[in-house]
Automatic annotation (TrEMBL):
Residues 6-52 form the Mos1 transposase HTH domain. Signal peptide: none annotated. GO terms for cellular component: condensed chromosome; nucleus; site of double-strand break. GO terms for biological process: DNA double-strand break processing; DNA integration; double-strand break repair via nonhomologous end joining; mitotic DNA integrity checkpoint signaling; replication fork processing. InterPro entries: Mos1_HTH, RNaseH_sf, Transposase-MT_Hybrid, Transposase_1, WH-like_DNA-bd_sf. Pfam families: HTH_48 (PF17906), Transposase_1 (PF01359). It comes from Girardia tigrina. This is Planarian mariner-8 gene. GO terms for molecular function: DNA topoisomerase binding; double-stranded DNA binding; histone H3K36 methyltransferase activity; histone H3K4 methyltransferase activity; single-stranded DNA binding; single-stranded DNA endodeoxyribonuclease activity.
Length: 339
C-alpha cells in the first residue's frame, strides 16, 4: 500500500472520532505489513486538528527566519559584550544564523567585544598613518575646538515585551502584541561640536541617506551653526569629522563642502573607535535609552530631545578632547583596535 493511501486511512480514522491508539490498532489490524506507529498517527492527527488536511509532505526543517541587519547592528552597538548565543536567543534564530548575519554587518569578536571589521594590515597602516598625522597637527596647532562631527544611528522601537499579569480567575489576559523580529526603527543624524548639538534630523521611515540628503543636511547645519554657535561660524573655519560612508564622499558632497568653505578631517576607514559620535555621543545615548520602551516614533523623538537636554556643556567638550588620547592609543597598538 502506498504511503498516500495510509494517510487517507489516518484521515478517515480522525473524522470518525478515533483516538490515536484506536487509529493505530484499526489500521494495523487490516494492513499488518504496512504497520504505522503511534508517533506517526499523532503527528497527522495534530495537523488535522489545526485544520490542515493536506496529505502531501511539508518542507522539512524550520522555516527560514531573516534577521534585520540594521536591528542587529543597533543591538550589538548598544551592548558589544553580548555573546552570539545571547543574540541568537534575542532574535529567535540559531547561533549559526546569527553568526552569518554578524559577518554580513562586518562584526568580529575581539577582546569580548564586537568590532566593525577584521582589520587587514593595510587598514592598520592607514589608521596608524592618520593618527600620527593628526597628533602632529594638533600639537603644532590645536584644532579640537573647530571640529564639527556627525554620524547617523538607528533607534529601535515598538519593543514591547510580554509579561505576567495578576488577574481574576475568569478574567482574560490583556492583549500584548508579540514582539517582532523586524522591529520598527528610526534613523537620526546628529551634528555637534565641543559647544553642543548644532543640528539633528530624523529620517522619514522608508527613506535613506543619499548624497543629496546629506548636502541638504549640510546646509541646515550651517544655518543653525550661524545662530547657535556664532563664534565658530564667524571666527573659525569648521573642520568636519565623519566616516567614509558613500554619501559623505560623493562628488556632489565634495562640491557642497567646497562651496561652504569647509575642511574635512582625515579619518581612516573602519574606525568607529576614533569617531566621537560613536565612542561618546551614541554610547551615552544607548545608556540613556537602555530599559526604555517606545511604542511610537514620537516617543523616540521625545526621548532623544530629553537626552540632549540632560547633557551639560562639559559632555561635548569631553567627547572631543579625548580624541588625542584615542589617536595615541591607536599608534601604541600599531593601528589595531584598542580597549
Amino acid at each position: 500500500m502506498e504511503i498516500s493511501e495510509i494517510r487517507i486511512l489516518m484521515k478517515y480514522e480522525f473524522h470518525r472520532g478515533a483516538t490515536t491508539r484506536q487509529a493505530v490498532g484499526n489500521i494495523n489490524s487490516v494492513y499488518p505489513t504496512q504497520a504505522v506507529t503511534q508517533t506517526t498517527v499523532a503527528h497527522w492527527f495534530k495537523r488535522f486538528r489545526s485544520g490542515d488536511f493536506d496529505l502531501s509532505n511539508q518542507p522539512r526543517g524550520r522555516p527560514e527566519i531573516k534577521v534585520d541587519n540594521d536591528a542587529l547592528k543597533a543591538d550589538v552597538e548598544a551592548d558589544s559584550s553580548q555573546s552570539a548565543l545571547e543574540l541568537a536567543s534575542k532574535f529567535g534564530v540559531a547561533k549559526s544564523t546569527i553568526l552569518i548575519h554578524l559577518k554580513q554587518i562586518n562584526k568580529v569578536k575581539k577582546l569580548d567585544k564586537w568590532v566593525p571589521h577584521e582589520l587587514k594590515d593595510e587598514h592598520k597602516q592607514q589608521r596608524l598613518d592618520a593618527c600620527l598625522s593628526l597628533l602632529s597637527r594638533n600639537k603644532a596647532d590645536p584644532f579640537l575646538h573647530r571640529i564639527v562631527t556627525c554620524d547617523e544611528k538607528w533607534i529601535m522601537y515598538d519593543n514591547r515585551k510580554r509579561s505576567s499579569q495578576w488577574l481574576d480567575p475568569d478574567e482574560p489576559p490583556k492583549h500584548c502584541p508579540k514582539r517582532k523580529v523586524h522591529q520598527k526603527k528610526l534613523m537620526v543624524t546628529v551634528w555637534w561640536s565641543s559647544y553642543g548639538v548644532i543640528h539633528y534630523d530624523f529620517m522619514v521611515p522608508g527613506t535613506s541617506i543619499t548624497s543629496d540628503v546629506y548636502c541638504s543636511q549640510l546646509d541646515d547645519m550651517m544655518e543653525k551653526l550661524a545662530i547657535k554657535q556664532a563664534k565658530m561660524f564667524n571666527r573659525l573655519t569648521p573642520i568636519l569629522l565623519y566616516d567614509n560612508a558613500r554619501p559623505h564622499s560623493a562628488k556632489n558632497t565634495v562640491a557642497k563642502r567646497q562651496q561652504l568653505g569647509l575642511e574635512t578631517l582625515r579619518h581612516p576607514p573602519y574606525s568607529p573607535d576614533l569617531a566621537p559620535t560613536d565612542y561618546h555621543f551614541f554610547q551615552s545615548l544607548d545608556n540613556f535609552l537602555s530599559g526604555k520602551n517606545f511604542t511610537s516614533s514620537g516617543a523616540v523623538k521625545t526621548a532623544f530631545q530629553e537626552f540632549i537636554d540632560s547633557r551639560e556643556s562639559v559632555f561635548y567638550t569631553k567627547g572631543l578632547n579625548v580624541l588625542p588620547l584615542k589617536w595615541q592609543q591607536c599608534v601604541d597598538n600599531m593601528g589595531g583596535y584598542f580597549d
